[in-house]
Amino acid sequence: MQTDDTMARWLRALLPAALCALDPAGCGGVRLRAQAGPARDAWLAQLRALLPPGTPLRRIPLDAPDARLLGGLDLAATLRAGRPVAERGLLVEAHGGVVLLAMAERISSAAAARLTAVMDEGVVVMLRDGMEAREAAEFGVIALDEAQGDDENLPAALCDRLACIVDLEGLRAGDCPQLPFDAGHIAAARARLPTVSVSPVVIQSLGAAAQAFGVDSLRAFMLAVRAARAAAALDGRDQVGEPDVTLAAQLVLAPRATQCPASAAEAPADASPEAAAPDQPPDSTPAEAAPPPGDAGGEQRDEQKDDRPADLQQPLEDRVLDAVRAALSPDLLAHIRLAGGRLPRARSAGRSGALRGNGQRGRPVGVRKGRPGGGLRLSVIDTLRAAAPWQVLRRRQGMPATRVAVRPEDFRIVRYRQRTQTTTIFVVDASGSSALHRLGEAKGAVELLLADCYVRRDRVAVIAFRGTRAELLLPPTRSLVRAKRSLAGLPGGGGTPLAAGIEAGWSLADALRRQGDTPTLVLLTDGRGNVARDGLGGRARAEQDAQAAARRVRASALRTLFIDTSPRPHPSAQSLAAGMGALYAPLSAADAQGISRLVKQAGAQSAGQNG
Amino acid sequence: MSQAFPFSAIVGQDEMKQAILLSAVDPSIGGVLVFGDRGTGKSTAVRALAALLPKMRAVEGCAYQCDPDEVASVCPVCSAAAASRRARLVPVPVVDLPLGATEDRVVGALDLERALTRGEKAFEPGLLARAHRGFLYVDEVNLLEDHLVDLLIDVAASGENVVEREGLSVRHPARFVLVGSGNPEEGELRPQLLDRFGLSVEVSTPTDLPTRVDVVKRRDAFERDRAGFCAQWSGRDAKLRRRIVGARERLPAVRVPDAALEQAARLCMQLSTDGLRGELTLVRAARALAAYDGDDEVGDAHLRRIAPSALRHRLRRDPLDESGSGVRVARAVDELLPA
Fold first, then answer.
1. Contacts within 8 Å (CB) and 24+ apart, B292-295
2. How wide is the angle at C-alpha B57 spanned by C-alphas B53 and B59, nearest 5°?
3. Which of A337, B91, B117, B339 has the fewest CB atoms within 10 Å, measured from its CB?
4. Rg, Å, chain A Cα set
C-alpha cells in the first residue's frame, strides 16, 4: 500500500519532466522543490534522458552577470580581430532546450525579471557594451528551489511562468520508477504537438477549475491548457481528451490552489459565486448566464454553445474538479482551512538589495582610471573605449596594425557602490493583554512608520504574536500596499507569547543580516508575557523565557526599539528593554514623529556599528 | 520578428487600451504608466501598438527619422545646409528597452567598430534616437536602475538627448511617448517619477469565468496560427487605425470651453494634487478623448472618463487610507461631475 502510494507520487513528480522535455518553452518549465540530493539527481537524470539528442541543457549559476546571461563583448576575440566581436549569452545557447536555475530561491528579482522578459518574448535583445544583437531564445526553466521556510521564496514573476510545481519532499531516489517513455517518444510527440487540437469544452473546464480553486493568474490557466496539449501529444492523441485535462489540472492548478470549493455534496458554504459555479444546474452555467463583456465576438459565444452540450460538459468540469481535489496535498488543505478559506497571495521575496562588502561588489556606478588586480575589476569596454581614439596614432608609432594597442593608461576599473539596505522588522503584540484598543494604536503607529520607511526606501517585515505562537505576517518587502494589507487583517486577542515573538524577530533579523542586510527590530508590546516558549501558560516562566530571548537579541548586537504600548509604563517592560539593549519609548508619551525619529536613530546606530 | 498579438483582440482592460490609444492620438499627453497584476496583457497591449499605428513621413537618410515638415530641428543631420528634404513612409517606432541594457546603448555612444578598426571618433545613436517620434516601452519599470529611469524621464520631458561623453558632444531630437509597466508587488516607483507620467492605469486580472476563458481561447488560437489569427483581426485593427487618424485630424479643432477648464481645476483642487501638471494633463487627455469620440467640444463626460487615469498617481500618498487612490478620484468625480 505504502509503496503504491510512493510510486504514484513519484510518477506524478516525473510527468512534468516529460512535458517539459516535450514542450520546454510552451510549458515554461518546472519549479522543483527539493534539497540537493539523490532524489533530485534522479529526477534530473530522467529529464536528461528524455531530452532528444542535441537539445541544449544549460545550468545558470546564481547571480550570473548580465554579460554571461544575455551576451556581451568577447574581449579575446575582439582583441584578436581588431573589431568588436559579440559573445553569445547562456540564454541564447539554451534555445530550444532547458535551463537549470540553481538555488532559484535566492535569485534576485532583477535577475528574475531579465529571465522572464526573455521567456515572454522568446528572444534575447542584447544591447550592451556598444553592441546590439537579437537572437531567438526559447527554453524551459527548471528552477531548483531549495527554500526551507517562509523567508525564502522564488520570485513570484518567475513562479507564475512555470507550469508545474513538483515537490520531492519525502521521496527517495531508490524508489524512483522509470518513466515509460524515452527520448524517441518525446521527439515523436514534439512532431505531433502542433497538430493537437483543444476543444472549447476543455478550455472551459480548466478555466472553471482554476476559478473554483482560487487560481487567479491567467498565466496558470493558459499553462494548464498547454500542459493538456503536451499530455495529449505524449499519449499519441490528436485531440486533448479527458485524461489530459485532469492531468494538466492536477499538475498545474492543484499546487496553486488557494481555496477548496465545496464538493457537489456539501452545502455551498463559500460566498464567492465562482467557487459555487459547479453546483449550479447545467442549464445556467456562468458562461451563458453572463454574456462576455467587451468586444467579444458573437460568433464565439455561439460556437461555445454548440460545443457544450449540457450533459457532456458539466460532468467534465466536475471530473476535473474532483481530480484537482484529489491531488491537493493534505497540508495545503489544512492551510486553506486555517486561513479561513483563502491562502494569502504568493509571496515574493522582493529581495533586490546588493550585499554589503568591501566596495568591490555591488552596483557598478561608473569607472575610473586605475590598474586592475587586488580585487579591482577591469572594465573591458571602457578600457577599449579609452584606447580606441588613439589607435591610428599608435600604429603610426610602430604598434602592430592588426592588434588593438592598449596601454596601461587606458585601463579603467569598475567602481561599485554598496547599497546597505535597511529592513525594519515590526514585531507586534496582538494579544488580549495588550488590550484591543491599544492594538489599534499600535497599528496606527506602525502605519506611520511604514510611510516613513516608504520615503527612505527601506524594506519592512511584520511579525505578530498572540495565542501560543508568533507568525511572520509579511516577509521583507518594499511594498507598502502589502504591508497595509497584512496589518489590516491582523486580529487581536489571546495570550502573550512574548518570548516567541522576540525570538521570531531575532531569527528573521539574523537571517537578513546573513544576507547582507541591516535589520532594525521594532517591538510593540506591553512587555507582559504570559505564555512561555513551549506554548504553556504561566507568567513567571513566560517572563523568564522573554528575558532569555532578550539576552539573545543583546548578544547579537541587534539594534532594537522597544515601544511600550501599555497605558501606564511598567517597570517589567523597561527591564526587558534594558535586557535586550533596546531604545525604550512608551507609546503613551511618544507621538508619531517621536517614534519615527527613534526608529531612524536606531537604524543609524545600527548602520554605524556594522558598517 | 514574429507577429504581435493584435490590439483589437485584447479582451477587456478598457482603461489601459483607452490610455494607450489616447497617447497615440496626442503624444503630448506625456506617456502612460500601467501598473497591475501579472499576466494581464500589459506588455501585449504595448507591443500590439506598433502594428496599429499609421505610418509616418520621415526625412530620407536621417538617422533620427525627422519630420520633413518640421523647420527648426535640432537634428544634426537635417540641420546641415545640404540636407535633402525627400520624405518616405516609415512605421512609427515602438522601441522596447530590455532590462540589462547598458547606458551607452540607451543614450548612444562612441561607435566602437569605427573606433577600433579605423580610429575614428563617431557617434552611434542609441535607443533614444530610435524611439524619436514614437514610443519607448519599459517593462518592469520599477526594476530598472534608478539612474536610467531618471535619464529617460529627463529626455522624454525635454524632447532632446544631449550626449557629452568621451569627447563627443552631440545633441539630437528624442521626442517619444514613454510607456512603463510594472507590478506594484515588486516594489513601488518613486513618487517624483510617478508624477512625470501623463496617464496612469491600474490593471487587474479579470475574475469572471467567461472573460477568462475568452482570453485564453484567443491566446491559444493566436499561438497555434499567428498569421491566420492576425488576419482575422486585421479588419478591426484597421478600423481602430482609421479612428486614430481621424482623431488626430480633428484634435486641433476640438474646443475646450471655460466651463470644462473650471471643472478640471475644481477637480484638481478637491483632490489637492500638487502642481499644475495634473490639470494640464487632464485637459489634454480630455481633448484627445473628445477627438477620439468624434466630438468637437470637451464636456463633463470626457473629463469624467479620463480623470482617474490622469489624476490617480498625483495624489499625496496617504498610507493610512485603505482605499486606493483610484477610489478617491472616483469619489471626487462623482461629487463634482455627477453623471
1. B292/B21, B292/B22, B292/B25, B292/B243, B292/B244, B292/B247, B294/B246, B294/B247, B294/B250, B295/B254
2. 140
3. B339
4. 29
Query: Is a pLDDT exceeding 90 seen at residue A62?
Result: no
Determine, yes or no, domain membership for B234. no
Mean pLDDT of A66-94: 80
A211 phi/psi in degrees, rounded to 5: -65, -45
B98 with B137: CB under 8 angstroms? Answer: no
In this structure, what CATH number is given to the domain that contains residue A554? Answer: 3.40.50.410
At B188 the pLDDT is 66
Residues of A in contact with B95 (CB under 8 A): none
**What is the predicted ipTM?**
0.84
Indicate if A15 and A103 belong to the same structural domain. Answer: yes
- How many structural domains comprise chain A? 4
What range defines the domain where residue B287 resides? 252-336
Distance CA A552, CA A73 (A): 50
What are the pLDDT digits (tens) for B262-290? 999 988 888 888 678 889 999 999 999 99
Q: Please name which of B172, B141, B143 lies closest in space to residue B42, comparing C-alpha atoms.
A: B141
Overall number of domains in chain B: 2
Measured distance CA(B74)–CA(B66) in Å, rounded: 10
For A120, the closest of B43, B118, B219 (CB atoms) is: B43
Task: Collapse the DSSP code of B318 into the 3-class scheme (helix H, G, I; strand E, B; otherwise coil) and give the result.
Answer: coil
Position A81: which residue type?
A: A
| Secondary structure class of A235 (helix, strand, coil) | coil
Identify the domain containing residue A60 by its residue range. Answer: 2-195
Phi, psi dihedrals of residue A566, rounded to the nearest 5°: -75, 150
pTM: 0.70
Q: Are residues A339 and A426 in the same domain?
A: no
Residue A102 lies in a domain: yes
A518 touching B (Cβ < 8 Å): no
